[in-house]
Specification:
It contains 7 helices and 7 strands; from the N terminus they run ααββαβαβαβαββα. The protein has 249 residues and is of the alpha/beta class.
């Protein structure tokens, strides 16, 4: 009996041992990880990666900068071109200024037939010009019906592609302070272009046209006709000459 019990115990022990081994062998094939596909990647990884790519921001062809329409660096060039107004005005004052080139300025002067026309070519860099400017304003105020006074400013020296707004406003400041209620022109040609097309070497210079539009006198200081220091003035020279033309009706 003792041997049978020992053998029974041995058989149970062996049977238990065999069952434990079977269970152990079965467990080695299941590590608790997700089932794998080819290459050992967990199932669902492809979907996960695909979702990650789809969620990344992408740049479409429509969103990409067009280098052909830019300066070559992928950024569109700013449009700096501005159209100049034909007339410059200043709120609160009747003073205005036209923007004309030199040829247009002369055409305006010659179109005033029936009246004596005075064209004063000046610049804010010319002290004698600014000193005599009030004489031009006074001449227009005194003869509003028979005389057309035109001031042509040539401050633009061609250092920019076109006359700048800053320069226009600077000239307008001067005109407004002098209450220049006459035909004011800010020349859009560089001063060098003006000098290439006139008979004088420097300003101040004043043209006087008669009622028929004919040039009767060019006042300038080139030949020292009016003295080396003082030069011509409205009070002594231009106004008396204009009044002489007016009297010869």
């Amino acid at each position: 009996m003792a041997e049978e019990r020992e053998c029974g115990i041995g058989r149970h022990a062996v049977t238990g041992l065999l069952l434990a081994c079977c269970m152990l062998l079965a467990g080695c094939g299941d590590t608790g990880s997700a089932p794998t596909t080819d290459g050992g990647r967990p199932q669902g990884a492809e979907a996960s990666d695909a979702n990650s790519i789809e969620s990344m921001p992408t740049t479409t062809d429509a969103e990409q900068p067009d280098s052909n329409a830019s300066g070559g660096d992928g950024f569109a060039e700013a449009d700096t071109s501005t159209e100049m107004p034909s007339v410059v005005t200043r709120e609160g004052t009747p003073v205005t200024a036209r923007l004309l080139d030199w040829k247009q300025s002369l055409e305006l002067a010659k179109s005033q037939q029936g009246k004596v026309v005075v064209v004063d070519v000046w610049s804010t860099s010319c002290l004698p010009c600014m000193r005599e400017f009030p004489g031009l304003v006074s001449l227009q105020e005194s003869h509003t019906d028979d005389v057309v006074c035109i001031s042509v400013n040539i401050d633009f020296i061609g250092d920019a592609p076109q006359l700048t707004e800053e320069l226009r406003e600077y000239v307008m400041d001067f005109l407004v302070k002098r209450n220049a209620q006459l035909e004011n022109i800010i020349c859009t040609d560089p001063d060098s272009t003006v000098y290439d097309n006139v008979e004088f070497a420097s300003i101040p210079a004043v043209y006087v046209f008669d009622r028929a539009g004919e040039l009767r006198k060019l006042f300038s200081n080139d030949a020292n006709e009016f003295g080396e220091e003082e030069g011509f003035t409205y009070q002594k020279h231009i106004t008396p000459f204009v009044e002489e033309l007016l009297s010869a009706k």
